Amino acid sequence: xxxxxCISHVPDTTSKINFTDNDTKFDTNGVxxxxxxxxxxxxxxxxxxxxxQGASVDVVNVGGAETEPTLRKxxxxxxxxxxRVNAEATDGLFVAKQLAQVVKDGGxxxxxxxxxxxxxxxxxxxxxxxxxxxxxxxxxCIGLEVEGEAATAVREIDGGKETLATKLPLVIGGQKGLVxxxxxxxxxMRGIMMARKKPLKVVEATAASEATKSVQFEKPAPKGDxxxxxxxxxxxxxxxxxxxxKVI
Amino acid sequence: xxxxxxTESEGGKLKKAAFEVASYAKEIAQSLGTTVTAVAINVExxxxxxxxxxDKVLEVKNDALNxxxxxxxxxxxxxxxxxEEAKVVVVSSSADxxxxxxxxxxxxxxxxxxxxxxxxxxxxxxxxxxxxxxNKGFNITEITTDIxxxxxxxxxxxxxxxxxxxxxxxxxxTIEGNLxxxxxxxxxxTDKVSIADAEVVVSGGRGLKGPENWGMIEELADILGAAxxxxxxxxxxxWRPHSEHVxxxxxxxxxxxxxxxxxxxxxxxxxxxxxxxxxxxxxxxPEAPFFKAADYGIVGDAFEVVPKLIEKLxxxxxxxx
Lengths: 248, 321
Hints:
The structure holds two protein chains of two kinds. Chain A is an alpha/beta fold. Helices cover about 30% and strands about 35% of the residues of chain A. Chain A has six helices and 15 strands. Chain A has helices at about 35-55, 70-75, 90-105, 125-135, 190-195, 235-245; strands at about 1-5, 10, 20, 25, 35, 55-65, 80-85, 110-115, 135-145, 150-155, 160-165, 170-175, 200-205, 210-220, 225-230. In chain A, strands 11-10-9-12-8-1-6-7-13 form a nine-stranded mixed beta sheet, sandwiched between helices. Chain A has a two-stranded antiparallel sheet with strand order 2-5. The longest helix of chain A has 17 residues, at about 35-55. Chain B is built from eight helices and 18 strands. By secondary structure, chain B is of the alpha/beta class. Chain B folds into two domains: about 5-170, HUPs (Rossmann fold), CATH 3.40.50; about 200-320, TPP-binding domain (Rossmann fold, 3-Layer(aba) Sandwich), CATH 3.40.50. In chain B, strands 7-11-6-1-4-5-12 form a seven-stranded parallel beta sheet, sandwiched between helices. A five-stranded parallel beta sheet of chain B has the order 15-14-16-17-18. Chain B has a three-stranded antiparallel beta sheet with strand order 8-9-10, with no helix packed on it. Chains A and B meet through helix 4, strand 9, strand 10, strand 11 and strand 14 of A and helix 3, strand 7, strand 9, strand 10 and strand 13 of B. Strand 15 (about 225-230) of chain A pairs parallel with strand 18 of chain B.
C-alpha cells in the first residue's frame, strides 16, 4: 500500500496571532511552526500501517522553502520521503489541485490529510481532493483499518460515531482518534539524523485556478473584564445570566 | 437564480441548523432580490421552513438516502442547484455539512467558504467574513467563482422568523453509480444533546479531580438542556470520551452560553470556545487564565459552587416555567 500524508505547516497551538501589511498577511514574526495537529494524528496512523503492514509512507506539503523543516520533522518521525510542491498555498482549491497531481503521479492508494488546518480552518482540502480524484472519502475520521483493498473507517458524527465500509483508493480527513495523543512520536536523534538523508523532492506547481482569495484579516474585538460573583451569592449569577446576558 | 439551502434533519425531523441556515439565506436572497429554495431529504414535515424565510421546498423522498452519504447528498444538492440555477448555496457547520460541502463544490465548480460568522460583507464582489486561526482571528474571503457555497458557523446568525409560507414540490433525485462508502453501524446517544446542536455547553476540567465527579456536571447540563464537554487533559486521561474534548484539536464550540468548571483555560482550549457568546468560569485559582477570557466568573471550589448553582437554577426554572 502506498500512502501519502498531507502535511500543513502551521503556527504552534500556543502562538499569538497577529497580522501585518494592513492586516492582509499573517505575521510570522517570532512564530514557531509545527506539523498541523490533525495531520500528525494521520501521519502516526500511517506509521502503524508502515510498521505492521509494510506500507510506504510519503509526505507532501504545498508551500515555500520555509516549510521544509516541518517536512523534515515528518521524515524524522518515520516517513520514507517528502515532496514539496513549490507554491504559495493560496486557497483550498489550488492546494487540492496540486495534491491531486501528486497523487496521480505517485499512484497512491491511501491519502491521509487532517480534517482541517489550525491556521486557516478551511476544512475542505481532503474533500476537494477526493472530489477532484473521484475516489472514496471519509471525513472527521477517528479510526481506520485496511485489509487488502477493503477499508473500515470510523467517522465522528454530531453526538456519536458511525462505522463505514469502503475501499481503496481512499482519501481520509483525519483527526485525533486515528491514534491517541499518547501515540504521537517525538523524533529521536537517530530519526533526525536519518531524516537529513531521506529524499525531499521539490516539484513545481501545475497551473491551477483558485476559487477564493483572502482579502483581509481581523482580530477579535478586545473583551471587557470578567464580572466576578461571590460563591456565596449564586443568585446574582443566575440573575446576570437571565437579565443581563439573556442566555437563560 | 434562488439561494439554495441544505436543510439538515434527523429521523425525518428538521434540526435547528436548518432553520438558522434558512434565516441566513433569506437575508442574502433579499439583498440579491431573489428567493430561498430548500432541499429537504426524507423530511416528514417541512412546513416550518416557511416561517424562517424559505419560499420553496424541494422534497426528496428516497430510501437510498436514509443514511447520510456525503457523495449522494452532494449529488442531490448539485442537481437541485442546476434545476434552480442557484448561484449561492448555504449549508451549516455540522459534521455532515462539512463532509458534503467540498464534494458539492467540486461538482459545481464553486468556491466554498466554511465557518462564515456573519452575512456577506458585500455581494459584488462576494466577500464573506469567516473564522480563522481557531477563533484567534477572522478572514474576509472573496469567492471568485460563479456559484458560491457558504458554510455558516452554528449559532452565528440565530433564528429570524419571517411571515410567509413555503410552497412544496417533489424533486426526483436518482442516485447513480456506486456510492463507495457504506454505513455499517451507528453509535449515537439519542437522549443527549450533542455539542454541535447545543445552545449551552457545560464543560469540566482537571479541577474535578476524577471521572466519578461528573455527575454534577451532567446534572447542571440537564437543567440547562445543555451538552457536556471537557478539556483536553480530561479526554487524554480517559475520564471522558474524545468526542467531548473541545478546543483547538478537539471540537469547536460556538454556543450562546459556555460554562467551564475546573478548567484553567490553556490558550488551545480558549481558542476552541472563543466564539461562544457568553462564557462563565468556576475555578478555585483566581489566577487561572480563563478569568481573562470569561464574561462571568466565580472564584471558588467547584464542589461547593456547582451544587449551589444547580439548586438556584432549579428554583429559577420553577419560577420561570
